[in-house]
Write a structure and sequence with these properties.
12 helices, ArAE_1, UPF0421, mainly alpha, 2 domains, transmembrane, transmembrane helix, Putative aromatic acid exporter C-terminal domain-containing protein, elongated, Four Helix Bundle (Hemerythrin (Met), subunit A)
């Protein structure tokens, strides 16, 4: 926010000085247009400038027609709004309604629709919005450090979650408030938003999709973890099978921080599934319910790992 304020201040000063140097009437209006033109990303800044210029040209055309036909009456302003605003909305450029209104009011105050007045308004548009667009394109802060920090937060929370679940499987009397689930979700949302903004700051070739893919993957995995947490609530007895699943979860708590997909937890799950088939059937209803929840938990772990295997980098083969 502080950086955007500095960019806005710079754009306003440059645009007003430039309008004065060009001898334009009402040069302060160029500063107002510059304020409207500053955006948070390069792509949004260019799109916004084009939309506002298009809306303003439409506003000039309607102002020229309405004031030229009906004269400079206050009720004509209402007619302008009634006609122009719906048109801008239908054209998908309603965000330019303010700039379109600004140029219309200039015509109303000056009470002239001559070529000189029209040319002055077009020049103000180009100076104000053009200056803002150039400053937008010139520099945008890179969010890489923030993205890395959010990535580390997500991985820390995931690691802690797997440790907590493993602890419950070993001792079902342990209590976990699930705070890490909420914090991980918040970090993923912020990361996804920042990753999108980072790509929007690349005007050509779309930018590096790594961060968007990463936070999308973590979002899918978090949904899977929420389902795991619901299954853990059904494990109200400590069983040997739970100890085996806890070991897999501890592997995951380490693997989650790795850049490459190790496959270690996936291999353990396969071995665990083979052992399940060789075990005796449950002796009691309670054991049946707990083992059923544990079996579903292993299925959910497989889903979690399938997302990681698909999205994470594969470790290069040795040799």
């Amino acid at each position: 926010m502080g950086f955007r304020v500095l960019k806005t201040a710079l754009a306003v000063v440059i645009s007003i000085y430039l309008a004065i140097w060009l001898g334009l009437h009402s040069p302060a209006s160029a500063g107002l247009l510059a304020i409207l033109g500053i955006e948070v990303t390069k792509k949004k800044g260019v799109r916004s400038a084009l939309f506002r210029i298009a809306a303003s040209l439409i506003g000039l055309a309607f102002g020229w027609l309405l004031f030229g036909v009906f004269g400079y009456h206050v009720w004509v302003i209402g007619l302008f709004i009634a006609l122009v605003y719906p048109l801008l909305y239908r054209l998908g450029i309603s965000e330019g309604a303010v700039t379109g209104s600004v140029v219309m009011f200039h015509l109303f105050v000056g009470q002239t629709v001559g070529l000189t007045a029209i040319g002055n308004e077009v020049a103000l548009l180009l100076v104000g919005l053009g200056t803002a667009t150039l400053i937008n394109i010139a520099y945008m802060p890179k969010p890489d450090r923030k993205l890395v920090a959010l990535k580390e937060q997500v991985e820390h929370h995931f690691s802690e979650i797997f440790f907590r679940i493993a602890d419950h499987l070993r001792d079902n009397s342990s209590i976990w408030d699930g705070r890490e689930l909420l914090e991980a979700g918040s970090a993923i949302e912020r990361g996804a938003e920042l990753a999108k903004r980072s790509m929007d700051n690349t005007l050509f070739f779309g930018g590096d999709p790594y961060w968007r893919v990463y936070f999308y993957m973590r979002g899918e995995q978090l949904e899977s973890i929420h389902r795991m947490a619901a299954l853990i609530a059904q494990v109200y007895e400590t069983l040997p099978q739970g100890e085996s699943v806890a070991e897999v979860l501890e592997d995951l708590s380490e693997d989650v921080r790795q850049e490459y997909y190790s496959g270690r937890a996936e291999q353990r799950l396969r071995e665990l599934e083979l052992r399940y088939r060789e075990m005796a059937l449950p002796a009691t209803r309670a054991e049946f319910e707990v083992r059923s929840a544990l079996l579903q938990l292993t299925r959910e772990l497989q889903m979690y790992l399938s997302v990681a295997k698909k999205q994470k980098k594969q470790r290069p083969e040795a040799g």
